[in-house]
């Protein structure tokens, strides 16, 4: 698994993928939070918090994480290297987990520069340091759990087609449904909306972002991530 992780992670930086993903993520967030005169601009909000960032970032992840994962297995199918991997002393689980951890680690690398936002808000507070640290820490944990689910979905869709664009579109669609689809269904149902929302990413992400780590939210994200990794492994069994 370690060898797969190294190979996959290094391949991101051997191509424009890592630089493009990290650059676009930071650029778009920076424009919305600090430059554009809109409702997301922190300087115009009058409050020392990062709610705007934690609202925008999950939507950006819907496109950026599929861009990271779309080639994971689709590229292996196209080049025929999956058969070579299977001749190595590696199990399917080691291959899947190696690619998964490499994708997730790249997302973490993309998130690290955003810690400068925390320092900026800390310094801009009146008085200095007047911000809800618990909520910010919880929101970052929520982002990691959300990214773990998106990465698992992206790996799964990359096993469904040799075409990376198809894998990308499928990943965006499934990730969007998991993030917002159940909320949309809940809005239509009305009385049972609370129970329906519990099936979606967004409700659990918002729960963690409040700064209270509920084991139910953690179990939910771990379960969904494991489910998509499991069906990814099953897909490899048939190859």
UniProtKB/TrEMBL annotation:
Residues 52-180 form the ABC-2 type transporter transmembrane domain. It is a multi-pass membrane protein. Keywords: Cell membrane, Membrane, Transmembrane, Transmembrane helix. InterPro entries: ABC-2_transporter_component, ABC2_TM, Motility-assoc_ABC_perm_GldF. It is found in: Cell membrane. One of its GO terms (cellular component) is plasma membrane. It comes from the Bacteria. The chain crosses the membrane at residues 12-36, 56-74, 95-121, 133-153, 165-182, 218-236. The keyword Hydrolase does not apply. Its main location: membrane. The keyword Acetylation does not apply. It holds the Pfam family ABC2_membrane_3. GO terms for molecular function: ABC-type transporter activity. This is Protein involved in gliding motility GldF. It comes from Tenacibaculum skagerrakense. The lineage of its organism: Bacteria, Pseudomonadati, Bacteroidota, Flavobacteriia, Flavobacteriales.
